[in-house]
Amino acid sequence: MNKYGLVKTLKDGENEIKLVGNAMTFVLYKSYFGRDLLNDIVSFAQANSGAINLKAEDVTLENLNAFSFDTEFILGLIASLMATAQYPTKPDIGELIMGIPPHFLTDAEVISDVLEFLSLFVASKKA
Fold first, then answer.
1. DSSP conformation class of 49
2. Backbone phi and psi for residue 70, each to the nearest 5 degrees, phi listed first
């Protein structure tokens, strides 16, 4: 099955974690967490105004400390992106979250990739 939207493969040693972001991500996030992904993205973006467009080389531990970093939201977003990659199979949310390596929350490249997904979801088209 072809995956449409933004597709990223994150490396964790020899393991790979595939993330896919598209409209199904919103449905799965709501199904798993009972909250609206767009509202959570907007809340995250408002709490971190200006930080959403960071590139990997701009993300440092010092920058991450400046974030209003909602670990629960980031884990939920990554888990939903992982679930979207596995659609139409709907994996157990606990297994998805447990499959996220803990160091991903402080890895500059991973955070940059997650911010890229956030940018995709909140990007506005300019005329």
1. T
2. -95, 95
